[in-house]
Write a structure and sequence with these properties.
Strand content: 5-15%
Strand order of the largest sheet: 3-4-5
Number of strands: 5
Radius of gyration: 43 Å
Order of helices and strands: HHEEHHEEEH
Helix content: 55-70%
Structural class: alpha+beta
Number of helices: 5
């Protein structure tokens, strides 16, 4: 009983060896070289065909995988875009609801805590008292973004407050109310009317 080889021999090489063993022993040196060259040529041609087969199979596998990944990515991007639009819409609705819940509330500034005692609300040591509308943090932040241009419109008596949801700066010019959603729009308009 013979022991099996430790490594598995490649089919191409074992066929080449068996052919050379089955043939008659080479008589001259040139016959041996010719048979070796024929065996090498056979091995090379078989390797070329295997390489071509593997290349075709790999191309098909890669193309299918890439196509599947691209389709999945397109679906994910479409879903993400839809979700982002929905989030923006819901944030806007939440801000509107919060402002509607607060619109009848007033915030008082200029009064120390507990200073009222027995005094009436409007007589506090001659200090300035401010009454402002209670708004959501997002709306207050948007309004603060307009502070610099708002002062310029107040100086020319054109400022008419803010429109609620969405928060827009209101400016009166030539009998018409103009609405601005960004500071840049308002600045551009101010420059155009000051020229």
């Amino acid at each position: 009983m013979s022991n099996p080889p430790a490594t598995k021999a490649c089919d191409i090489f074992t066929r080449g060896r068996s052919r050379s063993i089955k043939t008659a022993p080479p008589s001259p040196r040139s016959d041996s070289e010719d048979s070796n060259m024929a065996n090498i040529a056979d091995v090379l041609s078989e390797l070329k065909s295997l390489r071509a087969d593997f290349g075709t199979k790999l191309d098909n596998i890669d193309t299918r995988r890439i196509h599947h990944a691209e389709k999945t990515l397109e679906k994910t991007e479409a879903t993400l875009d839809s979700v982002n639009k929905r989030i923006a819409y819901l944030e806007s609705k939440t801000d509107d609801l919060e402002n509607r819940g607060r619109r009848k509330n007033l915030r008082l500034f200029g009064i120390r805590e507990g200073a009222e005692g027995q005094q009436t609300l409007l007589n506090f040591d001659g200090g300035k008292i401010s009454f402002v509308q209670d708004l959501s943090a997002e709306t207050v932040q948007i309004r603060r973004g307009f502070n610099t241009i708002t002062k310029l419109f107040v100086d020319i008596n054109a400022f008419r407050g803010f429109q609620h949801n969405p928060c827009k700066l209101r400016v009166l010019h030539n009998g018409k109310i103009n609405l601005f959603t960004t500071l840049q729009e308002a600045e551009k308009f101010y420059k155009s009317i000051k020229q």
